[in-house]
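Issue: ligand-bound run for magnesium ion - logging full I/O for the record.

Environment: standard queue, default settings, no custom constraints.

Inputs:
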Amino acid sequence: MEKKRQWLILAMLGILCIVVPPFMGTYAVHVLILVMMWITMALGWDILGGKTGQISFGHAIFFGLGAYGGGLLFLHWNITPWWGMAAGPVLAIIVGIPIGLVCFRLRGPYFALAMLALNEIIAIVFTNLDTLTNGATGIDCARTWGAEKLPYYYIALVIAAFAIFVTYRIQNSKYGYYFVSIREDQDAAEALGIPTTRYKIYAMIPSAGITGLAGALYMNYISSIYPETVFALEAISIFMILAVLIGGAGSLWGPVLGGAIFAGLDEILRATIGPISFLVFAVIAVLIIMFMPDGIIGSWPKVRAYLRRRKLTTGSEG
Amino acid sequence: MAYLDINGVVRKFGGLTAVNGITLAIEKGAIFGLIGPNGSGKTTLFNCINNYYPPHSGDIVFKGKSLKGISSHEICKLGIGRTFQIVKPLRRMTVLDNVMSGAFLRKNSLNEARDKALESLDFCELTHRKDMLAKDLPIADKKRMEISRSLATEPELLLLDETAAGLNPREIDGAMKLIRKIQDTGITCLVVEHVMKFVMGISDRIMCINFGREIAKGKPEEIANHPEVIKAYLGEEYAKGQ
Amino acid sequence: MALFGQTFITGVLMGGIYAIIAIGMTLVMGVMKIINLAHGALMMVGMYICLVLFEHAGLHPYVALIPTMIALFIIGYLLQKYSIGRVSGVETIIPESQVLLTLALGLAITEVIRVIFTSNYQIIHPALTGEYWHLAGMTIEIPYLIGFVIATIFVALLHFFLARTDLGQSVIATSQDKDAAVYMGINAERITNFTFGLGTALAAAGGVILMPLFYLYPHVWHPYLMKAFVITILGGMGSTVGALSGGLILGLAESFGSTYWGPQWGEVIGFIIFLLILLFLPGGLKRIIGR
Ligand SMILES: Nc1ncnc2c1ncn2[C@@H]1O[C@H](COP(=O)(O)OP(=O)(O)OP(=O)(O)O)[C@@H](O)[C@H]1O
Ligand SMILES: [Mg+2]
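Outputs:
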């Protein structure tokens, strides 16, 4: 019964996502595209960070490579960047696997730091290898649909749905169980016969791939990329973590909610309070980490219990 | 050749030799007890068997196959399961999910793993706890869950590290029953234990070690009256007895 | 030869300044066992305080150093006590929630500064700015030299403080084994707060030293935070000697990298050292020098 209702809500949400946007303004559709992109990124990060417990401070590496996958094809061979939708994630995965092989030997904060350093290294390399990447000038390509937003929106929607699907499948398989076991206790996982290093790599692959896919979408939608924007430590790597954190790590709907709220709030705050929007944002992040460290989804049972108790006490008074 | 053969295993931590040339052989289907005062090297020996701390010398042979250089998870796959002295529950997973994580070693689909896990939980009389988060379990059930989780990997040899520590007398009786039941299914057990009543009650043979060396080996009643064992345990046991 | 000498001296002087920033971080990491991503932002706050003291009270940065450090000590202490410390020990799905909190705090602090001072570049010209010493074909910028001397003095003072005073010994005990320290009657919480304040004050000192040398803007701290990590990992968490040697090594590596390989690659060298140390010498130089 419960399950049926959930599916119903889901189906309705899906239909809304498909039917409503054509009737919305350009700006609103733009925001929705970003929302879908951030949902994808948050889900990508969460496979490695939230489920497997390997906190990456450098996922912009995969976002950037995803963007550059198509960008480089276009730059060197004039191939349409839509091929980047395949090339980007593949490039991200190809780079992600050796990174994992090397860095998964490190535990906890050391892994986080290593990813942070790699993020910086790759950003600097892409800025300075002029002949290969066109350096800081970045890559510009023509937009397939000009100023038209709707086609991009539907592509973004499909990508986000794909990310949700992949996450759902992972969660309901051996992989999901093994990933979470590794997060909860690596030694116990080994003792249960789980090859922890190999499974961290298995988590890295979809994580890098999905993040790369979001990067490829960005490349096609924004149509110009620079190393400093797609490999941005703060605006990509860190914000991905914050987005997941807001929604709740380690679940399916946590990152979805987090990505949506993050991208939506970011735009709304910027439109309404302009210059101090980012300050408000950072303060919200501080408060969430201090008081709801498991995010909205993760802390929901606690919040609900609290509200119930409130209701009960007020009820008995009245 | 015995089922599990431990041959002159040595393991050092810096200047300290935690296990210093232990040799022992365990027959299939037996319950073998390993006792010794605190810090005598029992847990370290376990960690050597599943290669969490590779031995510095000596050899461990399981079913005729040397375990040298085989990683912990592969050893589990070979059929050696273990529990931890300091329990390691997968804290934010439910009890069922914990056990399923073990079951996936030999089952690939979700449904098979769930069935296997439920079976194992039933065997350990933990079914009523299956939807609780592991971190919320009382200690006795955490230990049971570890056993259940380990059994779900279908081990042939089970290493149990201080299953009775921290349990009350009734829970200890329950744990003894459970271990006998495990033995009845044909699983060999190596049991580390401080609680004498427990280890004397279930073991077929016992070895007592101190400072990483064997000081006595034999049937429970022989060990109980062995002068070296009494000497090693005297202070502690007397204190406990009073 | 002059080029080599110049490169060497630039590296050493810069390395000393890096060291004082990194020592603050290594102290905090040693005691709290977390990475403090707010360290850089707090350093930057110190720089803005120094800016205000210079512009409105006419204090030369080298004089403003002390009040700035005191202010940042208090800010750091309060932040740790009322924010970061509260999250300690809370069980969360993402294990690094304290680290993420320092990160968010760093972003928030940067934004506060940006709202107050805008993101415009600011530069001050106190006495001694842009003065040089010429020595055997090499030029040494005086503020670099003074900065290096100040940094070295602070490192020495800190070393003395940790080795010789009761409070310092409590800090060391807490960083080596918190539980044992608690058993010995140390108030670990207060020591942690104190250490955070001290680390922040040292970062502020590093920032103030940089004032006569570089532009100031809210995001100025990014590269310095990175360098502080590199040095902390290179030197080993909680090790003052390690941080000093790590600072010098990084300063030299960057200086030689920029001179002989190209300025854009100077920073990459630091990160490569960082990765190599993480992978092949976990524990850092502390493991070799033993303190
Ligand atoms: N990882 C380690 N590093 C350093 N020393 C260790 C390590 N593990 C164990 N030791 C030391 O090895 C010795 C044996 O420890 P072990 O845990 O095997 O004892 P034990 O017999 O299991 O004791 P207990 O009955 O208290 O569980 C002890 O002196 C212990 O301090
Ligand atoms: Mg033990």
